[in-house]
Amino acid sequence: MRKGFFQLWCWRPDVWYVNRKGTNLESVISDTVGAVRKQALPWLDDLGDISRALQVFESRDEGSMLPGIMHEILGGGVDSFDRAEISSALALALGDRERAREAWLRMLANPYYKTLSDLRALAAERIALIQGSEALR
Predict the structure, then answer these.
(1) Among 21, 49, 53, 105, which residue's CB has the most CB atoms within a 10 Å radius?
(2) What pLDDT, in 10s, does the model give residues 18-50?
(3) How many other CB atoms are found less than 10 A from the CB of residue 117?
(4) Are residues 104 and 83 in contact, defined by beta-carbon separation less than 8 angstroms?
(5) How many CA atoms within 13 Å lie on the side-chain side of 108?
């Protein structure tokens, strides 16, 4: 969530600063409530359905680096390790093992991960677990 007003003493858009005397507490609470209504609740409504959440986590690119703050609404870029972890878990919750496996394969195909052998090894382990659980069925 992002605050709706500028605070000179706290420039981060995701932190509401209450001064020592609490004289700005009412405006901070009011703005926070507004942010929950306008930002958090619609986000939760949008992603409250597992099928919809999986579709969003597989495709929506909402990550951005801002000065001094990393802003990742969906836990990493499309086809990132974190996004594969989430997409795979959602797919497994829906009983779709192939889609869970594909999330990891997309991550492995991402050029960023070509040299990160530790993350590639973890992804390979996840794929083996998904395939192994299929063999048990």
Answers:
(1) 53
(2) 999 999 999 999 999 999 999 889 888 888 999
(3) 9
(4) no
(5) 15
